[in-house]
Design goal:
Number of helices: 14
CATH topology of the largest domain: Aminopeptidase
Radius of gyration: 24 Å
Distance between the termini: 24 Å
Helix content: 25-40%
CATH superfamily of the largest domain: Zn peptidases
Number of domains: 2
Structural class: alpha/beta
Strand content: 15-25%
Shape: elongated
CATH class of the largest domain: Alpha Beta
Number of strands: 20
Length: 496
Amino acid sequence: MKLSVRGKSALSAVEGALIIGVFEEDENLPGWVNRFPDKIHSLLQNAVNEDNYKGTFGKTLLLRGSAKSKIRKILLIGLGKRDDWSEEQARRAAGKSRTALKSARIKKAAMTLFGSVADPAIAKAQVEGFMLSGYTFNKYKSENAENNDSIDISSLDILNVFGEKTAPLKRAVKLGRIIADSAILARDLQAEPGSTATPTYLAAQARKIASSSSRIRVKIFDKNKLKKLKMGAFLGVSKGSQEPPKFIILEYRGASPKRKPIAIVGKGITFDSGGISLKPGAAMEEMKYDMSGAAAVLGVFRALSELKLNENIVGLIPATENLPSGTALKPGDIVKTYSGKTIEIINTDAEGRLVLADALAYAVKIYEPSQIIDLATLTGSVVVALSSHASAIISNDSDLTKKLIDAGESSGERLWELPLWDPFRDQIKSDFADMKNIGGKGGGAVTAAALLEKFVGDTPWAHLDIAGTAYLSSSLDYSPIGPTGVGVRLLLEYLS
């Protein structure tokens, strides 16, 4: 999408669709509306006076433009109450705007900068919401030239209705585009079927990202290398599949080599059948999304190639399938991890924590990170607790937790903290190994984290369980049905 920022003087030259945000308390149109042609001004005034449009959040009113104007459609979008105004409200309003214009078959649009002042953070949020709401994944559909989806907005102007100064807004809009494009990459990776998005495919995507920046290096460890490293948990999960596992490592160098890196680890189970502990057939197709943590890591590194942050960051993705076969991991088996600790397998469908255990231990030993964050569609219990409204955060460091929660509020990818108490740790004690891979009934999201905790040592660590937020069964504002790219915006907000 082509994006540009224009000052207040450009209001008289708008073409295509015009999007205007209206607060609930506004009884009169703002003074800058006078810059529009008289016919457009009259249409807007009538909408407020005669149609009794009140600006309730998310409420839209679509008007036909004047025949004498290049403005074909005018969309009023409610911004709600000023006291409730936030970056996320701007993101949602922009997303709803694009959805409302979907049937208008318009290629060019202009959107006024929402709010009461020229706030770059709001401009960034508007761009994110607008771009993300238009997401589609149609590469496997037969072409249909008459499909309305074939005509969509390809050019968007952000109008600074508060003045002519555009430089700070241009930087914000560029940042919003980078973040949205990176989240869209993550969505695309999530949406691919497991037959395409194999561990080998993810490794190829990592190489492609690394080739775009001199600051990014990539390493791909194959099965033989994993054997040499004695990653018994990771290899154990991969045993049932004919697809070779890949341990993908991305290194971003934006600071002095002396500065310890931030490590982000993404679960990369490219299809999860449950293994020998086979899942029910209903909705098993959604298990292609079990690599959503990996998709988030790749999305973040795609953004890093453009953002040039002054940080050292390492991304680690243990990628494999989890399938049943005559060679698959079995309940009752005991695996020896990279760290030397052993895990008794009670249920082979609790495989994500196994691959993460080896990846986390490797990150801590080899990179000695200042902090480590993992993202994983790890448990169904977190979906029961939080639905799709927030991801869970479980951590050993209160400062890291607070910063990530704050980043979640700003980015719109909210986090809710769950406690990691000793009784949860007790649930994963094993009679035959150092620990077992599930903790019985109750507290499943936390007992999974209790296992991961054993592999990070004293390193500040946060585990993000994104099982409920990685994909949606019904559309929400700027997230259509399907993959959300969760984690990309959150981590980029935090890292920035």
